[in-house]
Amino acid sequence: MKTGLFCNYENHDHDARRAISEQVAVVKHGESLGFEEAWVTEHHFNDLSVSSSTLMLMAHLAGVTSTITLGSAAVLLAFHNPITVAEDIATLDNLCDGRLAVGIAKGGPFPEQNKHFATPMSESRAKTLEAMTLIHKLLYHNDVSFQGQYYQCNDVTIYPKPLQKKIPVYLATSDDEAIGFAALNSFGLMGGPPFSLDTLKNNVAKYRAINSSGCDKFMLARFFFVAGTKDEAIAEALPLIRSFSQRMKMLSAKAQKCGNSSQHLQASSSQKSIFDEDQLLENSIIGDVATCRDKIKRFQDELNLGTLALKPASLNLQKNLESLTRYNEEVRTYV
């Protein structure tokens, strides 16, 4: 199992420059610890997560790192021109010397994104899968012609081509059609921090029923903080968890009123939202060393993880760096 970072560029102090600088510091620290991957989110019209230009942020990280793989978690393809995305991906793969991985998603639950990018929620998934099909052709073939429901082109060749012969691709989804699309193309799956273990196990089972080998690339993101005691860790992480819970419950309610049918918004074992505070804590890796080891081992056993991407859960940069160092010294070697 590889260790990664989940990078949300959180702007708790309402200072975007500081938020970007601190996230870069976390990635550089992770690389110094030997972490293998860093995954950058995409959010729009969000004052908390200033990561609207995901691939641009990754290009910056490419210039200040040398070994860590850089992944998108995820590019919201329905809101972008796929030809432009293909060009950006190929260019970025060259900039980072072939250290690129591409995660994609349809976006949600954020109705404003669909509104301002003129993409109805009912079309987001279909546009995402069609865009990825076109992008994959553009990355590796010349004179591409494509006639889809949403995108068309004739005899298009992009330059440059990627440095890698095959860039790893991941889908963040709980939708049956999208899981099938990932399995048929041997793309990996991604699970975001709130996704329950039951949902993730169900997703993996559906994937493996179609493709028994491709899901070894499963990437799981989890809120994380390790401290001397479990109570100390929870106390340090709770302000961020609580803020995330309140914001996401509000946005989820708004999205459901707008017809968002995302299947992972309800915990499968109860009627609680996966964004409830206690559900988020249950699904996170937060506690003392033994607790964190046990939780990671359970995820490994249940999901056969390819990558565990840690989302440091303190509001304090130095404490996050210290927590990641403790993970490296006291947790990682035992899991």
Task: Tell me briefly what this model is.
This protein is an alpha/beta fold and 335 residues long. It has helices at residues 16-32, 54-64, 82-95, 111-116, 121-140, 176-184, 197-210, 230-257, 277-283, 289-303, 317-331; strands at 2-7, 37-40, 69-76, 100-105, 144-147, 152-156, 169-172, 188-191, 219-226, 285-287, 307-312. Helix 2 packs parallel to helix 3 (82-95).
How does this model look, in words?
This protein is an alpha/beta fold and 335 residues long. Residues 266-270 have low confidence and may be disordered. The N and C termini lie close together (9 Å). The protein has helices at residues 16-32, 54-64, 82-95, 111-116, 121-140, 176-184, 197-210, 230-257, 277-283, 289-303, 317-331; strands at 2-7, 37-40, 69-76, 100-105, 144-147, 152-156, 169-172, 188-191, 219-226, 285-287, 307-312. The strands form two sheets. An eight-stranded parallel barrel has the order 1-2-3-4-7-8-9-11, surrounded by ten helices. Strands 5-6 form a two-stranded antiparallel sheet. The chain has a single domain (2-334), classed as Luciferase-like domain (TIM Barrel), CATH 3.20.20.30.
Topology:
Elements: E1 2-7, H1 16-32, E2 37-40, H2 54-64, E3 69-76, H3 82-95, E4 100-105, H4 111-116, H5 121-140, E5 144-147, E6 152-156, E7 169-172, H6 176-184, E8 188-191, H7 197-210, E9 219-226, H8 230-257, H9 277-283, E10 285-287, H10 289-303, E11 307-312, H11 317-331
Parallel strand pairs: 1-2, 1-11, 2-3, 3-4, 4-7, 7-8, 8-9, 9-10, 9-11
Antiparallel strand pairs: 5-6
Helix pairs in contact: 1-11, 2-3, 3-5, 6-7, 10-11
